Amino acid sequence: MRVGIPRALLFHHYGDCWLSFLEALGVEAVLSGPTSSDIVNAGVIHADNETCLPVKVFSGHLLELKDNADVILVPRVISQGYGTCSCPKFLGLPDMARALAPDLPPVLSPAMDLGDRRFLWLRDWYKVGRALGCGRLATAVAVRGLVESLKAHDVETGCESENDGALSVGVAGHFYNVNDPHVSLRMLERLQGMGARALTIEQSSEREARRQAASLPRKVYWGFERRLAGAVLHWSRTASVSGIIFLTSFACGPGSFIGALLEDELSREGSVPFMTITLDEHSAEAGLVTRLEAFTDMLRRVPARKPASAALERGAVL
Amino acid sequence: MGNLPFIVEDLAHRFDIDYIEPPVFSEETVRIGASLAPEFACLPLKAVVGTFVQALEAGADTLLMGGGSGPCRFGYYAELQRRILEKEGYRFNLIVLDPPSTSLKAAYSGLRGIVGPDVARLGTLVRELKRALAKVVVFDEIEKWVLALKGREAEEGSVARAAEEARQVTSAAFTGKEIRRARREAQLLFEEVPLDDNRQHMRFGLVGEIFVVLEPYFNFDIGNWLGKRGVVVERCVHIADTVYPGGRNPIFGYSDRQVARAASPYLTHEVGGDGLLSVGATAIFASRGFDAVIHFLPFTCMPEVIAKSVLFRVSEEMGIPVLSLTIDEQTGRAGIETRMEALLDLARSRRRRACREVAGLSVAT
Q1: Taking the domains of chain A in order of start, what are their residue ranges?
Q2: Which of A178, A289, B204, B271 could pair covalently with B275 via S-S, beta carbons 3.0-4.6 A apart?
Q3: Residue of chain B with shortest Cα separation from A51
Q4: Is the pLDDT of residue A131 over 80?
């Protein structure tokens, strides 16, 4: 039995946990290859044309697994933490996957509701283990291992590095866009090449992010976006970066709102420059490079600000 | 949006609220909204921002907005609108009315923020809300009858006249007894409408996101348009069903549980907004033998995009034509009408084909 996992979307968050779960069950896991133009094109052709870029990329990965997996694992991530919910795309992802093509292998969709303190969703994973032909005990152990690995995953706090004078740029965006070199057009590498240090959301402290997100007048209810908003506010309020790039994808629902929210909040606070880059399947390197160059050049010309005086210099922001 | 003006009028009268009737949606509203709101925000946000600007220009000082807690973006509308309008330099007080499912306390304090001092007692508040809800149900029932009868009326305009009169009667009713009497009168008015039984009619289901399905400006008055062409329309989203407690959906007639069960082969989880309802209702319409289903969604609407990609499968497996129409601020009437006409032709030819099959004739055309 080969279980396919598309290397897209929340695989970039929870992939390790899923893989270790399958390993504990003793079934073979098949991953789709790294994102390529073929995968993106296949996704764009088959997926609904109004979905966001990451879902199209996901569809491409799913189609790649069509022939080399017996079942496909698409967990339904209902929430990523207590009091939050996921983007609707994640809630409907397994159903979208089933509707994608008629000859796909069966889709297993255990729920993952990390905000559920009673852990009722673990039953789904137990059923998955049993459906994959594992014994009761082995499955129970694997499920237990999944919980442990998710816990370890949660406490993993980022390393906050000291500002050593080099230009640092915060890249705020979904993991599945930022960490996928093909989708993000190697943005992190490019920033590094321009002599700027790129910080991602993972590298910011989760506790700080939670504290800053709580300072917003209305709670952001999407789990990942709450983390993102908190991290951006933390960067801006402690002036630990010189500028922030908000990376979103075309037709991203939560992204459209959080981007507008952060832009407004940062301009009210008179904080660091903030640039939004929208990715889609037609994004080309030249356009991205020009914008990144312009952004870093501008950051170099604006003198670094101190956190305390940030609010006074409202005129100098983007 | 649908019966909302009548509902607001009723609530304002009940709770003694001084309100400005917002202008009907127009090109100007959409233009203002689209220029202020974020590019990829959904159409309802843009439209409401436009309306708020027009209302503030007309002298409003307090804005009332619904709330929620996801996963649909609607729950964050209020916060974003506040920021957008403040940036434009408007001064106002924004009251967010959260549903009780988000937070009972927030819902109650939101309500207390708008009702006048006359209804100081909780009992009075609850009683008035119950009556208001009963009235909303009657208004929506009238709309349901209009959609069902418009395609079969013998004399053009008779259904519209009956609806006009029924709405007037209902608007004037305030106590429980009056509302019940108004409903009876309204029903009588509709029963008296002469119907043309010889007219062949199609049955279409209307599903989708509540705002674009209910607002005639954005769906190009689809109910009326179809009615003129002899189509009996049934809609699955209603204001009354949305606000009715317990998910009983008295107007649509299928409870949330029944809808979820109908949708379960295709969509097995709530996706926020009206996504699950769209899929479930399409399955219900298909099993009831409807000729086609029209699915309206605003551009980038997250729940409906999922519904749209799943509806493809419902359509194929249950054998019902489904037309998904995406609406944004640039959608033109001609484009929508051409596709509707094509759907109508398709439904007619399917009907003819089915008749020939039953009669044992060759189905080749």
Answers
A1: 2-155, 167-316
A2: B271
A3: B305
A4: yes
The verdict on A96 touching B (C-beta cutoff 8 Å) is yes
ipTM value, please give it: 0.89
B149 part of contact set with chain A, CB < 8 Å? no
Give the DSSP per-residue string, B130-173: HHHHHHHHHHHHHHHHHHHHGGGBSSTTHHHHHHHHHHHHHHT-
Q: Give the whole-angstrom CA distance, residue B288 versus residue B314.
A: 14
Distance (Å) from the alpha carbon of A241 to chain B's nearest alpha carbon: 25
Distance of residue A161 Cα from the nearest chain B Cα, in angstroms: 33
Chain A residues whose CB is inside 8 A of the B275 CB are: 88, 92
Instruction: Please list the pLDDT of chain B residue by residue as tens digits (365 residues).
Output: 778 888 888 888 888 888 888 888 999 999 999 999 998 898 999 999 999 999 999 988 989 898 888 789 999 999 999 999 999 999 999 988 888 888 888 888 888 888 777 777 888 888 988 999 999 999 999 999 999 999 999 988 999 999 999 999 999 999 999 999 999 999 999 999 999 888 788 999 999 999 999 999 998 999 999 999 999 999 999 999 998 988 889 999 999 999 999 999 999 999 988 999 999 999 999 999 999 999 999 998 999 999 999 999 999 999 999 999 999 888 889 999 999 999 999 999 999 888 888 888 776 65
Residue B165 identity: E
Q: Would an 8 Å CB–CB cutoff place A45 in contact with chain B?
A: no
User: Domain locations in chain B?
Assistant: 18-114, 121-199, 200-365
B200-365 placed in CATH 3.90.550.10: no
- CA of A264: how far to CAs of A15, A139, B216, in Å? 34, 49, 33
Chain B interface disruption, residue of A9, A44, A50, A82, most B CBs within 10 A: A50
Could you say which of A76, A85, A256 has the minimum Cβ distance to residue B71? A85
Instruction: Tell me, yes or no, if A302 comes closer than 8 A to chain B by beta carbon.
Output: no
The shortest CB-CB distance from A256 to any of B38, B71, B84 is to: B38
Q: Which helix (H) or strand (E) holds A297?
A: helix A285-301
| Cβ–Cβ under 8 Å, residues A133 and A28 | no
**Interhelix angle B122-149/B158-171, nearest 10 degrees:** 170
Q: What is the CATH number of domain A2-155?
A: 3.40.50
CATH number of A167-316, picked from 1.10.287, 3.40.50, 3.80.10, 1.10.340:
3.40.50
> Taking CB atoms and an 8 Å cut-off, how many pairs form between chains A and B?
121
**Dist. CA A316–CA A273, nearest whole Å:** 9
Min Cα–Cα distance to chain A from B80, Å? 7
A47-90 tens-digit pLDDT: 988 899 999 999 999 999 988 899 999 999 999 888 889 999 99
* DSSP summary character for residue A304: P
Distant-in-sequence, close-in-space partners of A154: CB < 8 Å, separation ≥ 6:
A206
Cβ separation A87–B326 shorter than 8 A? no
**Testing the interface with A: which of B65, B72, B79 to mutate, by most A Cβ within 10 A?**
B79
For chain B, helix, strand, coil in percent to 5 are 60, 10, 30
User: Is any Cβ of chain B less than 8 angstroms from the Cβ of A260?
Assistant: yes
